[in-house]
Design a protein that fits this description.
heterodimer; A: alpha/beta; 5-stranded parallel sheet; 13 helices; B: alpha/beta; FAD/NAD(P)-binding domain; binds flavin-adenine dinucleotide; binds iron/sulfur cluster
Chain lengths: ~300, ~650
């Protein structure tokens, strides 16, 4: 019997939906084994269709994107009810991803930045969206961005932004054969094409941004270019590194790490060469955008209730 | 898992009990799950205190104990030794309620915190596993790198005790800097005369394998078990066959400067650096010789009756296994070309202290005569500049420690050679802390009527046939100008660049000036952080010959202590890598201060237990959170935190 599959796009860029097409001919192979019962982005399904389905009638539901609005939350709950296995698909659903950086700000700050202060958004009338405008009712913009597991029980995760091809293929095959545990259990360096170029002792005298240094083809970290590989789950095969770009950590942390950013920060701080305190401070402060570098993908998961405001 | 824990709270006189209510601590702990017994005592570490532990373990049938007292670095060993007779020493933990509590907190707050600390320690103890010490076999052979007086002394001491030594020297002869010196302060005995017998003793010692003209190119392994690769450079002369007749030297057409004479004296392409060299043999300088491929000259081979010369000699790599390593790679002078204000020292009549030593030496470039190099005349006015490049933030910030003394010696020897000459010494302070040193300096200042001027030299430059020295006499506040015939710079002492290279091979640290970093500046001055590696002589810091010899013997005694046992016993508190989850990112390998984390052929990290000191640096740094410290596992630490907050 063909497995019944659903895919939903929550708050996200849409890359995850597209990534499913990125497995190319493999998708055609899979189509023999599956029946798509709900995929608003690709086929014409309405929410009523979903509501009408019997509980647990969907074999596997994939939820991509985060939970930003009350609508996202509603669908997440509905999907949970209707499916046997609910999968968090992609970084947004698992840990909030780039849009999760919004949890550093509150709703008002976000609206102000997006609708009033953004120079590329002409808004002479200074209109800010409202939830109710006459007859029309829009879903609520939640105070904070949530990840899928904040709202419902999640059975499996497919990491990545979006899930890279090898990760996705392995995950789909596993899920279709009934497994919910799959993927690698080491960090990216293990499969990195530059791993063998690592020197015995990595010592960082200063940090370079990626464009500031002529890449010598060796391990980025050893060159003083921050690469999140050591604190990032393997599986992608080092796609970015193969394209000469350091890893930004989209696969999330390896299994034993709870806080990807902290793990990488403490590793990096330990790798600084011998220097006095003043210089140390200078070097650390030279890192542009700490949160965006070390917590690009995991901020929302780690700050589900937003940022603790500085006192005073 | 423990089981029946006994808690012993120490008063430490009033140190703890004066602040912390120790009775209350014992009372609270008595109620804590897993604790079978709790009491207090005046001094737990005293004999009666230790006996109390024994007695209670037996009476109360305890299977683990917590001693709430001072820091484990003080007494953990004491108490674990007591417990050893009853159960695994890992079942004894110390809770530090002194340094971390009574010394830094007030009454009630202190008692409350003490209770938490002890409870947390009880929780840690519950998670401890029984561990057995790690045993490491020891190869009883020592590698000594550097054949200066430091290396020579260390090698002789160890060999005299009956152990094998490999002494590696990169130059054609051992002897180091001491062989270059003329006479030595404060007794003015001839340097060569006291050194040569030791050099000969090295070459004759059955337990010493001397490998001169050789370099250590690779070192791996750890205490008791180092694998070293030594490159024996070709001399093109058979060491054993050469009779040092010197016939070859006479016919060799190539003349180059002799490094041993600070390049102030010529030598041939085939040479012996100085007559007393050990091993006693000629060496062909491959850069200068015309006989090596392409062969355009074979004069020496024809002249050599002993048939000792072989142009086809090849470099050889010798592999050795040793249990300990002494680094005695010595010093260099700071390069005088760094001294902008002294005209980069480029002038012929501005020389370094070592050049002056060679000048004073009877076998040196001038046959022991003091001359003004530009003219060959006897200099009538000589200025000695102390601290050239030392104690100067622009150059080397530290005191080179021996320059005051040898400068006094230089001035004195100058006056002996040129009684009607005038000698001036510029100094910042006089540091003469050794035995009989102050007397020596006083004698030089007073009896020899040498002009000591307190102040720094601002500028040195040539004017006609004189070298002008400008300085300020800080005692009178007056500017001083001296038109001298010769200026001698007492250059700062720095570590050799080779020391850095060796340090990298050994994964030990070097500090300011390129000197090796000892494990503890006071208590472990001859030990590296990594076990089995020791330092001697000026490679560690500038020092004079007596201090060098003393340190060499100290390093040797450390090696002998290591060799006294067949196996090394090691604390089992080490790091453990979960290989399955290791990505081989190399962070731990980079950060381990003891070189204990090493990469395996499969790319993953592995802790060499013999080297690991259990410091935990790697565990904190591993970005995969993949390293656990034995008996300091995450769950244990989490439990401790839970109890505390
Ligand atoms: C001008 C001057 C005058 C001095 N006068 C006195 C004095 O009168 N009295 C006194 O007590 N002290 C005096 N000293 C100090 C004295 O020279 C030192 O204390 C002593 O030489 C230190 O010996 P060492 O063995 O540590 O170093 P060194 O003598 O430098 O010996 C180091 C040896 O290691 C070898 N080596 C280096 N690297 C390697 C390598 N990688 N592999 C193999 N071999 C290597 C070197 O070739 C050298 O032979 C004077 C110093 C100076 C500069
Ligand atoms: S740090 Fe980055 S570049 Fe270096 S081996 Fe790891 S993933 Fe590759
Ligand atoms: S290299 Fe890093 S950022 Fe790139 S796909 Fe892999 S995990 Fe994501
Ligand atoms: S072969 Fe070389 S060492 Fe011998 S005489 Fe000729 S130049 Fe000198
Ligand atoms: S605990 Fe880690 S860092 Fe410390 S000595 Fe052991 S291996 Fe090295
Ligand atoms: S730091 Fe951790 S992941 Fe990296 S090599 Fe060491 S044990 Fe492996």
């Amino acid at each position: 019997m063909k497995k019944k599959i659903a895919m939903y796009w929550g708050a996200g860029c849409g890359g995850c939906d597209v990534s499913l097409l990125g497995i190319h001919e493999k998708l055609l192979e899979l189509l023999d084994d599956i029946e798509i019962v709900f995929w608003p982005c690709a086929t014409d399904f309405k929410y009523e269709d979903l509501e009408k389905m019997p509980d647990k009638s969907i074999d596997i539901a994939f939820y991509n994107g985060a939970i930003r609005t009350s609508e996202n939350e509603e669908i997440a709950k509905l999907l949970r009810k209707k499916s046997k296995i609910l999968v968090a698909y992609g970084s947004c659903a698992i840990e909030g991803c780039i849009i999760g950086l919004a949890n550093l700000y509150d709703k008002e700050e976000i609206f102000r930045a997006v609708y009033l202060e953004n120079e590329t958004t002409p808004n002479k009338e200074k209109i800010v969206p409202k939830e109710k405008a006459g007859e029309l009712e829009l879903p609520e913009f939640l105070p904070h961005l949530k990840v899928l597991s904040n709202v419902v029980k999640v059975d499996a995760v497919i990491p990545g932004c979006p899930p890279p091809k090898p990760v996705l293929i392995e995950a789909l095959e596993a899920l279709l054969s009934g497994k919910t545990q799959f993927g690698k259990s080491v960090a990216l360096c293990d499969e990195c094409p530059r791993r063998d170029t690592k020197p015995d002792k990595i010592e960082i005298d200063r940090f370079y941004r990626w464009h500031e240094k002529q890449d010598d083809g060796k391990c980025f970290l050893a060159q003083g270019i921050i690469c999140m590989g050591p604190a990032t789950l393997a599986g992608c095969g080092g796609e970015c590194i193969a394209a000469n770009i350091p890893c930004t950590g989209c696969m999330g942390p390896p299994p034993k790490v709870r806080n990807q950013g902290a793990a990488m920060l403490s590793a990096i701080a330990s790798l600084l060469g011998e220097m006095d305190e003043e210089r140390e401070k200078e070097v650390i402060e030279s890192i542009q955008d700490m949160v965006g570098t070390f917590y690009k993908y995991t901020t929302a998961k780690l700050l589900p209730k937003g940022r603790v405001k500085d006192e005073g | 898992m423990a089981r029946r824990i006994g808690v012993f709270v120490c008063h430490c006189g009033v140190n703890i009990a004066g602040v912390v209510d120790v009775e209350k601590v014992a009372e609270e702990l008595r109620k804590y799950p897993g604790v079978a017994f709790a009491t207090t005592y005046q001094y737990m570490c005293s004999d009666p205190g230790q006996n109390l532990i024994r007695q209670k373990i037996e009476e109360e049938n305890l299977d683990a104990v917590v001693i709430a007292a001072c820091s484990p670095s003080m007494h953990e060993e004491t108490f674990r030794n007591v417990c050893k007779d009853y159960f695994n020493p890992q079942r004894c933990e110390m809770a530090n309620i002194r340094e971390q509590c009574s010394w830094v907190h007030e009454k009630e707050e202190a008692t409350e915190k003490a209770i938490k600390i002890v409870k947390a320690t009880v929780e840690k103890l519950k998670g401890n596993e029984d561990l057995t010490p790690i045993y490491v076999p020891v190869e009883k052979k020592c590698l000594v790198i550097g054949g200066g007086i430091a290396g020579i002394q260390a090698a002789l001491d160890i060999a005299d005790a009956g152990y094998e030594v490999i002494l590696v020297e990169k130059e054609p002869s051992i002897g180091g800097r001491m062989a270059q010196l003329s006479e030595t302060f404060p007794t003015l005995d001839c340097s060569q005369c006291i050194l040569t017998p030791k050099m000969v003793a090295v070459s004759r010692h059955p337990k010493i394998k001397l490998m001169a003209y050789s370099e250590v190119i690779d070192i791996s392994g750890y205490v008791g078990n180092f694998d070293v690769k030594i490159l024996k450079k070709p001399r093109y002369v058979d060491e054993d066959a050469c009779t040092v007749c010197g016939d070859c030297e006479k016919v060799c057409p190539v003349i180059v400067p002799n490094e041993f004479d600070m390049e102030k004296k010529p030598r041939k392409a085939i040479f012996i650096p100085f007559p007393q060299a050990v091993p006693s043999t000629y060496t062909i300088d491959r850069e200068a010789c015309l006989g090596l491929a392409p062969l355009t000259c074979a004069e020496c081979r024809e002249a050599c009756e002993a048939n000792a010369i072989n142009y086809d000699m090849q470099p050889k790599i010798v592999e050795e296994k040793v249990g300990a390593i002494i680094v005695a790679t010595g010093y260099d002078l700071y390069d005088k070309s760094n001294l902008v204000e002294y005209g980069y020292g480029e002038d012929d009549d501005i020389i370094t202290s070592l050049e002056f030593e060679r000048m004073l030496s009877a076998s040196g470039p001038t046959g022991g005569n003091i001359i003004k190099p530009s003219t060959g005349e006897t200099p009538k006015k000589v200025v000695f500049v102390q601290c050239a490049g030392s104690r100067d933030k622009q150059h080397m910030p530290y005191c080179s420690s021996i320059c005051c003394m040898y400068t006094a010696k230089h001035a004195l020897l100058y006056k002996h050679h040129v009684p009607d000459g005038e000698a001036y010494v510029f100094y910042i302070d006089i540091r003469a802390t050794g035995k009989d040193y102050e007397e020596f300096i006083n004698n030089v200042m007073e009896e020899e009527r040498i002009n000591y001027i307190r102040g720094k030299v601002a500028k040195i430059f040539r004017e006609g046939d004189k070298i002008v020295v400008w300085g300020v006499d800080t005692l009178t506040g007056k500017k001083v100008e001296i038109k001298a015939d010769l200026v001698v710079l007492a250059m700062a002492i720095v570590g050799r660049k080779e020391t850095k290279e060796i340090a990298q091979l050994l994964k030990v640290a070097t500090g300011v000036g390129g000197f090796l970093k000892e494990s503890h500046p006071k208590l472990k001055p001859v030990e590296a952080l990594s076990r089995g590696i020791y330092f001697a002589g000026c490679a560690q810091a500038p020092k004079d010959i007596p201090a060098t010899v003393a340190q060499a013997s100290a390093a040797a005694s450390k090696v002998l202590a290591l060799f006294a046992k067949d196996k090394l016993e090691k604390d089992p508190m080490v790091a453990v890598v979960d290989e399955e989850h290791c990505s081989g990112c190399g962070v731990c390998i980079s950060v381990c201060p003891y070189g204990a984390m090493q990469r395996q052929p499969n790319g993953k990290a592995k802790c060499i237990e013999a080297l690991c000191e259990g410091c935990g640096t790697c565990a904190a740094a591993c970005p995969s959170n993949n390293i656990e410290m034995r008996n300091y596992r995450d769950e244990q630490i989490e439990k401790m935190i839970e109890v505390i907050i």
